[in-house]
Amino acid sequence: MKSARLITVLIAFIFCLQCSGQDANWNKSLISSIDSMIQLDSRSLRKANELRAKYGMQSLEAKKQDSTTHLIRASNLIEIDKILKKHGWPGEDKIGEEGAHSLFAIIQHANMNTRPKYVPIIQEAVKNGNCRARYLAGIEDRIATDNGELQIYGDQVKYYPLTETFDVWPIINPENVDKRRASIGLQPIAIHLKNRFNLDWDLEKQKVRTEVFSEEMKNKY
Fold first, then answer.
1. How far apart are CA 78 and CA 135, in angstroms?
2. How does pLDDT run across 80-100, given as a tens digit for each residue?
3. What three-state secondary structure class fits 163?
């Protein structure tokens, strides 16, 4: 009887090891796939930025490269949809923090008509603890800018051709933006802008920009 129980335990232990190995291989494969997609996207975008620096923001050379980037991103989304359909939203326990960030970046780079379809998926993932709330905030801000609305968390920076400068897309109640950011685990907007875009946060300036933007939208509609 003891020998039979020992054999049973050993078989179960070996089975668990095999399962763990399969999970590890699956994770590595998924991570590799996501990493390949974001690297392809990043290389194309980097080339476009180099062309903009060399020939100008609105140059034909840069626009041609932008077209290539759009094709790459469309192809990436086809693969992402396959992943989501097969596995659901893979949390950081499956693909790691970097993999989760890359997955979100690929979705964030979808075109404005496609991006909203991923919001319910991300909302569900956040609800289940499989996705960080800051990713939901990021896509919500991006969609707000797509729709010509005030953003909530200040995640989005845009290029303004008229002044040929980059600036934060206007934010709702900018004086309270850091409270909203802190509530979902984001660093203060001044640090975010400086580290990521080398831009300075000027609250008074942004309050004026928000007022002007709101008036323009009111008159427009």
1. 20
2. 999 999 989 999 999 999 999
3. coil
Task: For 155-181, give one letter per residue: b (16+ CB within 10 A) or e.
Answer: bbeeeeeeeeeebbbbbbebeebbebb
**Signed CA dihedral, 153, 71, 87, 95: sign only:** negative
**What amino acid is encoded at 219 in this protein?**
N
- Please report the pLDDT score of residue 221 as a whole number: 65
Q: Report whether 73 contacts 41 (CB < 8 A).
A: yes
Of residues 78 and 7, which shows the higher confidence score?
78
Q: Report residue 152 as tokens.
A: 């909530």
The full length of the chain comes to 221
Please name which of 133, 98, 94, 138 lies closest in space to residue 115, comparing C-alpha atoms. 138
Euclidean distance between the first and final Cα of the chain, in Å? 82
Of 3-7, 172-176, 180-184, which one has max mean pLDDT? 172-176
Q: Give the span between the Cα atoms of 208 and 127, in whole angstroms.
A: 36
Q: Which two tokens stand for residue 5?
A: 């129980």
Closest CA to 146 of 199, 155, 191: 155
Token readout for 23 is 């999970």
Which residues make Cβ contacts (< 8 Å) with residue 152, sequence separation at least 6? 137, 140, 141, 144, 171, 172, 180
Query: pLDDT exceeding 70 applies to what percent of the chain?
Result: 88
